[in-house]
Design goal:
The chain is of the alpha/beta class and about 600 residues long. It contains 21 helices and 28 strands. It has a five-stranded mixed β-sheet. It has a five-stranded parallel β-sheet with strand order 6-5-7-8-9, with helices on both faces. A four-stranded mixed β-sheet has the order 15-16-17-18. β22 and β23 (about 465-470) form a beta hairpin. It starts with a strand and ends with a helix.
């Protein structure tokens, strides 16, 4: 062990060595699980280790050298993690690409990192990947995870099963040991490509030290995790949050369940029944909105019972949170409330959830409080790709809702003169790959990383993030608007799927709103509203009035200058394919504003 900023960290030179230890320790215990063709499939730690070893030797047979890169262009699958860890085992660098990326976006990453191999998850990704070869001087082979993918009759492609067979027949075990002998914590572990809301993606360089440091820091903060926990992996593995959490799950010997289609999360989670699940606020917003939408049609008696139970849960669990004793009468009320109502809310997420790490966007405080009252800890935090995900998160006790917690052990955070959050620590990236100018701009002269976020500390030492510096808007009246706060407030409504606030140099705040069409079409049917298309539906006067009332109700706690005065309902969702949102659902404001320029102008009478 070595010490860094008062934090004891492992002196292992490569993260792969942690996984190899776990393979030896856990043997037949389940490591990875997924559902294929409707049936659950499990991979034990022993099998996991064997497949890692085979994949590592196959890469060696294909000539992958130290610190060369391979790409993984796939939905979440156990094969992704097998390939990922295998690459680490030969000191190669695994680089994930969002499964939904266009051919052009994926090709940019492959060429930027000079990937030698690309692993694909389905037919669409294979068809995109095969177009890269004419423009790549590095790419040698496509390896297809799914045996149902139709491969062209070419030497450029093969199935993962055949790839593993090459490794199985290889005798290069000694070369793995040779590579580990010359490994260093300063080696590049991966590149995480940013989603590019404001420009072309940048490859964030994370080292083995970054990941080993964050594992130690999380050990200090997350006291309750164990090797008996089951974690659900449904955010894209190309996202720093899910990727680094998966590394931590394996490091702690947990079982990892993979979901290849995030749109199925609400139903899948009930069957998977995880103890832990990383997520972004949008998932919690949708669960919260669904609960309250169902409550609207409940009887007065059921509504009263629901609110009584939630109040009992909040009072009891908040006392526990603040490490105070719970009066016997309140504990009795809580147990009854839990049996009648709160346990049923937990059943919506499988019934076993203990905590849910959450980051990536603002989460409305009332939603966080709702889940905690129901017995589910949304372990809210803050981080970036450039900081190996987590910078701050709630302590396990005595935290405040609505804030993103205190810095992890060994991580330092301060607020710059312009309100910008500045960060130092063993989690901070080395820089951006092949982009020395962007790297220089990302740091202050004395070495603090510039987050680009505006924040402040409260008197308890917890951080509050208000918005991105580039996203802050100033109305023509001189008021500063934090659009993400307004968007998260409105986004908690069951009838709203997506929302983008407009207000820069305008007289008031307006919004482009994508309805939740499942809820809206049900409402239209129940209220005998006739329409021939979604475009016609969103222009119906009764529908516009419905949204006006719901927006006004949601906005009642906002300042007057923050309230949405006008809005436009859109018939189509913001799309990755149209370059309106990133694969992590962050809105590309300039692109959306350009596409809907006419609608925006009409809200301000500027047609």
């Amino acid at each position: 062990m070595t010490t860094y900023e008062g934090l004891e960290i492992s002196d292992k030179p490569n993260y792969y060595l942690f996984i190899r230890e776990r393979v030896d320790k856990y043997g037949e215990k389940i490591a990875l699980r997924s559902k294929k063709d409707g049936e659950w499939e499990s991979i034990s730690w022993r099998e996991f280790g064997e497949k890692i070893n085979q994949a590592a030797k196959a890469m060696l047979e294909m000539g992958i050298e130290d610190q060369q890169m391979i790409s993984i262009f796939s939905q979440n699958k156990p094969e992704c993690t097998i390939t990922d860890i295998a690459a680490l085992g030969i000191r190669a660098i695994p680089v994930f690409i969002y499964a939904t990326n266009t051919a052009g976006q994926a090709e940019y990453i492959v060429n930027d990192c000079q990937a030698r191999l690309i692993f694909v998850g389905d037919q669409e990704q294979y068809d995109k990947a095969k177009t890269f070869f004419p423009n790549s001087d590095s790419l040698k082979k496509i390896i297809a995870f799914d045996p149902n993918i139709r491969l062209d009759d070419t030497d450029n492609a093969m199935y993962f099963s055949d790839f593993l067979e090459i490794g199985k027949n290889s005798e290069l075990d000694d070369e793995i040991e040779n590579r580990m002998a010359r490994a260093s914590q300063d080696d590049i572990l991966t590149l995480i490509y940013t989603s590019g809301t404001t420009g072309e993606p940048k490859g964030v360089i994370l080292t083995h030290f970054n990941l080993i440091f964050t594992a130690a820091a999380h050990d200090q903060r997350l006291e309750s995790v164990s090797d008996q926990d089951v974690s659900l992996c449904f955010l894209p593995l190309s996202h720093v949050f899910e990727r680094t959490w998966t590394y931590y799950v394996l490091y702690r010997g947990m079982e990892n369940i993979y979901l290849d289609d995030p749109k199925l999360i609400i139903d899948f989670i009930k069957e998977a029944r995880p103890h832990i699940m990383c997520s972004v606020p949008r998932v919690y917003e949708k669960i919260y909105a669904a609960v309250y939408h169902n409550l609207e049609s409940a009887s007065p008696t059921k509504k009263k019972l629901f609110h009584w139970a939630l109040d009992a849960g909040a009072r009891r669990n908040n006392l526990k949170k603040d490490q105070k004793s719970v009066p016997l009468t309140l504990e009795i009320k809580y147990r009854l409330a839990d049996k009648l109502v709160l346990s049923k809310i937990r059943d919506l997420v499988g019934g076993r959830i203990r905590f849910m790490p959450c980051a990536g966007a603002p989460l409305a405080q009332n939603i966080e409080e709702f889940f905690y009252a129901a017995g589910m800890f949304v372990w809210y935090g803050y981080g970036l790709s450039e900081t190996t995900a987590t910078v701050t998160c709630h302590p396990s006790h005595n935290f405040k809702f609505g804030l993103v917690g205190t810095p992890l052990p060994g991580v330092h955070v301060k607020i710059g003169d312009n309100g910008e959050v500045l960060i130092k620590g063993g989690n901070v990236m080395r820089g951006y790959y092949n982009k020395p100018e962007a790297t220089a701009e990302a740091f202050t002269e004395d070495g603090w990383f510039r987050s680009g976020d505006v924040g402040e500390f409260d008197e308890n030492g917890e951080l509050r993030i208000t918005d991105r510096i580039k996203d802050l808007m100033k109305t023509s009246g001189g008021k500063y608007i934090a659009p993400q706060l307004i968007e998260s407030t409105l986004g908690a409504d069951h009838f709203i799927e997506q929302v983008m606030v407009v207000g820069e140099q305008k007289k008031f705040v307006s919004a482009l709103i994508v309805p939740s069409f499942e809820a809206l079409e049900e409402y239209a049917q129940d209220n005998n509203i006739e329409y021939n298309s979604r475009a016609e539906l969103v222009q119906h006067p009764d529908i516009i009035e419905l949204y006006r009332q719901r927006i006004n109700e949601r906005s009642k706690d906002l300042a007057g200058y923050e309230k949405v005065k006008e809005f436009t309902l859109l018939p189509d969702e913001f799309s990755v394919d149209r370059n309106e949102i990133t694969p992590t659902m962050k809105i590309k404001r300039k692109f959306v504003a350009k596409r809907y320029n006419e609608a925006i102008n009409s809200m301000y009478g500027e047609v």
